[in-house]
Every structure is written in structure tokens, then in C-alpha cells.
Specification:
An eight-stranded mixed sheet has the order 1-2-4-3-5-8-6-7, sandwiched between helices. 42% of the residues lie in helices and 17% in strands. It has 325 residues and is α/β, with parallel strands linked by helices. The radius of gyration is 21 Å and the shape is globular. It has a single domain, classed as Zn peptidases (Aminopeptidase). The longest helix is centred in the first third of the chain and has 27 residues. Helix 8 crosses helix 10.
């Protein structure tokens, strides 16, 4: 009888403590019941991997002005349209005596009566250097961008989100410069952030860094640092100073922009060995969660109300780290 009472007491104690354990777990992971879940729970890293595989293994090197670029552009447009995007533009531009292409899919606010008037841009480049299949550079960033476009397609937002796959990045940011320079001043004034995804999946690269052209924090790094604190299993990504990718033309037009990349770079950078077998599923998923949560934080329609709620993202401390490529 005494043994039975003891066992019963333990069971009662466990059930009593369970709610407290759940609360403790939630405190360690504030996103457990936060607005982030609308996005991050829908991210399927297998989709990202499949995009990386198709671009790097089925298509292979995707040099500007080639048949492989045309195949890539068609694939990207088909993917955007399959997600339900009705405004998908294939944007040609001149590139060293030939033509290259950007692909742009635009998500408009769900309710035009609740339009904030703001624009967010999520970008990646789809081209490679000659001879490289570019699994990490930059099928990885393109795959993450495509998955975020899929997840965001039906998410409630009051902000216009443009998903842009840039061409001819490898010969001097030609596609992104063409896109940024052709934005009207009104579009520039309304664009509150540009997230550039470049080389975000190599198992052999270092940690995630947020690079800005001037080495200063901005809206994009603030959003991503806060998102990292909520949804990443890793350290909050630091910021640093670097150009060399498609965030540069947007910075030059006065738009807050940041490059998301893992450094130090992998030894396979710009070589034929940049292949699918060196891609880290964990890194792809981590970047998708951070950037997805950051973009949705800025784009969701209930941002003002959430500023005073228990699930509002809190400012976090994140530091400057010297570039280490």
C-alpha cells in the first residue's frame, strides 16, 4: 500500500510539473507560439535541396548568355508560377555583347485597403562562373529564395515583397545593377530592406555573417539578428563589411541592404568541385528560417499591435566581426 501511494505521488508531481517544464521550454524558444511559426513551420528544406540539385546537377554551370541560363530562367519562372504568383517577369538586360536575365516574382499585400506602401526585396543570383556547377554559389541562395517565395505566397502581409533572381552577378553585379538602377525614385523611397542570399549552404564554409557595404547595422541586419535570436539554434549572426554581391547596387541607391553568406569561404569556391555533395541541409534550413522570420516580421499586417505584445521581437545585441574570407 505504501509503495502504491509513493508511485501515485510521483505521478501527481510529474503532472504538476509538466506545465512548468513546457513554459521553461517556451522561454528558451520564444518562437514556439509566436508569429514566426506561420513561416518557419512551413519551410521544407527538402524543397530547397531539390532546387539546389536541379540547378547544379541537372542544369550545371549557368553562365550568363548561354542556353543553360535560358533553361535556368524558365525553371525559375515556372516555380514562381506554380506557387500562385501571377506577376512574374523575365527581365532581359545587356551583358557584355549578349543578353542575360533577371527573374522577378512580386507578392502584393493581401488586402489593398491595408497596404503599408512599403517594399521588401529578397534576392539571389542564378548564374555561375564557367565550369562550376555552383551548388553553393549560388544555387543555395536561389533555392532558399524559391522556398521563401513558396511559403510567403499565401501569408497575410501588408507589404509588397519582390523575389528577384539576378543574372550576370559573376561578371560584376550586372543584373542587380540593372534592376536597381531601373527602380523609380518612388520605388526606392518605399523599399525598406533588401536581403541578398549568396552562398548559404556549404558544409565546408564558416558561420553565417551579415555583410553591409559600409560595415554598419541597418534595418535588414536588425531584423535578421532579432529573428536569429528567436528561430536559430546557432549564435546570432554578427555583421561585417563587404561588397562583392548583389546587395551593393541597392545600397548605392540608399536602400538598407545586407548580404547573407557563410565565411570563411569553402575551398571549392569558383571551382568545378562546388557540387551538391558538399551542401549542408542544416545550413540551408537555418538561413531560410532566419531570413524568412525577418522578412515576415517586417511584412506581416499586425506589426504595430505586436510591438506591445508578449510575442513581439525584442532588440538583441549583435556585434561587428572583421571580414574573414
Amino acid at each position: 500500500m505504501k509503495r502504491q501511494i509513493t508511485v501515485l505521488s510521483v505521478i501527481i508531481m510529474l503532472f504538476t510539473l509538466l506545465p512548468f517544464a513546457a513554459l521553461e521550454a517556451e522561454a528558451r524558444n520564444p518562437s514556439a507560439q509566436a508569429f514566426d511559426n506561420r513561416i518557419i513551420k512551413q519551410i521544407d528544406v527538402d524543397n530547397i535541396y531539390d532546387h539546389v540539385y536541379h540547378l547544379s546537377e541537372n542544369i550545371g554551370p549557368r553562365v550568363y548568355g548561354t542556353e543553360a541560363e535560358l533553361e535556368t530562367v524558365e525553371y525559375l519562372a515556372d516555380q514562381f508560377e506554380s506557387y500562385g504568383y501571377t506577376d512574374v517577369e523575365i527581365q532581359p538586360f545587356p551583358a557584355r555583347n549578349t543578353t542575360a536575365y533577371n527573374v522577378v516574382a512580386t507578392k502584393y499585400p493581401n488586402n489593398r485597403n491595408m497596404d503599408s506602401g512599403q517594399i521588401l526585396i529578397v534576392g539571389a543570383h542564378h548564374d555561375t562562373v564557367p565550369g562550376s556547377p555552383g551548388a553553393n554559389d549560388d544555387a543555395s541562395g536561389t533555392g532558399v529564395m524559391l522556398e521563401l517565395a513558396r511559403v510567403m505566397a499565401n501569408a497575410p502581409t501588408d507589404t509588397e515583397i519582390r523575389f528577384v533572381a539576378f543574372g550576370a552577378e559573376e561578371i560584376g553585379l550586372v543584373g542587380s545593377r540593372y534592376y536597381a538602377n531601373n527602380m523609380t525614385q518612388d520605388e526606392v523611397d518605399r523599399t525598406v530592406g533588401m536581403f541578398q542570399l549568396d552562398m548559404v549552404g556549404s558544409r565546408d564554409a564558416g558561420d553565417l555573417i551579415m555583410f553591409t557595404v559600409d560595415g554598419q547595422q541597418n534595418t535588414v541586419t536588425d531584423l535578421a539578428a532579432s529573428a536569429g535570436a528567436r528561430v536559430s539554434q546557432n549564435e546570432i549572426p554578427p555583421f561585417s563589411m563587404l561588397g562583392r554581391s548583389d546587395h551593393v547596387p541597392f545600397y548605392e541607391r540608399g536602400i538598407p541592404a545586407a548580404l547573407f553568406i557563410h565565411t570563411p569561404l569553402e575551398p571549392w569556391y569558383h571551382t568545378p568541385e562546388d557540387t551538391i555533395d558538399k551542401i549542408s541541409i542544416e545550413k540551408l534550413e537555418d538561413v531560410a528560417r532566419i531570413v524568412g522570420a525577418a522578412v515576415y516580421h517586417a511584412a506581416r499586417p499586425d506589426t504595430p499591435a505586436l510591438e506591445r505584445s508578449q510575442v513581439a521581437p525584442q532588440p538583441v545585441d549583435y556585434y561587428y566581426e572583421d571580414p574573414n574570407l
